[in-house]
Specification:
This protein is mostly helical. The protein is 61% helix and 5% strand. The protein has one domain: dinb family like domain (Four Helix Bundle (Hemerythrin (Met), subunit A), Up-down Bundle), CATH 1.20.120.450. Strands 1-2 form a two-stranded antiparallel ribbon. The longest helix is centred in the C-terminal third of the chain and has 25 residues, at 121-145. It is globular and about 45 Å long.
Length: 147
C-alpha cells in the first residue's frame, strides 16, 4: 500500500475515537465504567500519548514533543479533566502521526521497542490502529454507561 492509502485507513479507523471526542463534555472526563481504573479523560490523554510515541519512536518523527504523563504515572491520577486541552493534545497527535506515516519509505523495515519487541513498521502500524480503537471502545462504554 502507498502511504496515502495507509493514511486513509488510519484516519477512517481513528474516526471511532474522534467522534467520541466530539460527543464528550467536560463532565464526562472523570467518569469511569464499572470497576475500570481509567477515566474518560485518562483514556483520551493516553491514546494521544501513544500515538505521539509511535510517531516519534517507531516511525522516526524526531520533532514530536511528548511527555507521556499517563505512562509515567502508571495509573489514572484524575488529572485529565480539561476537555479543550485534551482535544488540542489529541489533534496534535493526529497531525504528528499522519506526518510520520506520510514520511515512511520502507514499511518492511524492522524496529524494536521494549514495549512490544521486534516488528516491521507495517506490523507496528497495525498495532497503533488497534490501540486507538481499543481505547475508543472503552471510551464509548464510559460515555454511555459511566458514572
Amino acid at each position: 500500500m502507498k502511504n496515502e492509502q495507509l493514511i486513509q485507513v488510519w484516519k477512517e479507523g481513528r474516526t471511532r475515537f474522534t467522534r467520541l471526542l466530539e460527543q464528550a463534555g467536560p463532565g464526562d472526563l472523570p467518569k469511569k465504567h464499572g470497576k475500570s481504573p481509567n477515566s474518560a479523560g485518562f483514556l483520551i490523554r493516553h491514546s494521544a500519548e501513544v500515538e505521539l510515541l509511535f510517531a516519534k519512536n517507531v516511525f522516526g518523527k524526531k520533532d514530536v514533543k511528548i511527555t507521556a504523563k499517563t505512562l509515567i504515572a502508571g495509573k489514572d491520577t484524575g488529572d485529565w479533566t480539561d476537555l479543550e486541552e485534551l482535544k488540542a493534545f489529541s489533534s496534535y497527535a493526529e497531525v504528528m502521526l499522519e506526518e510520520a506515516i506520510a514520511a515512511q519509505k520502507d514499511w518492511d523495515e524492522s524496529i524494536e521497542t521494549k514495549e512490544f519487541g521486534k516488528k516491521t513498521k507495517s506490523e507496528a502500524f497495525g498495532r497503533i490502529l488497534t490501540h486507538t480503537a481499543y481505547h475508543a471502545g472503552q471510551l464509548a462504554l464510559i460515555l454511555k454507561y459511566g458514572d
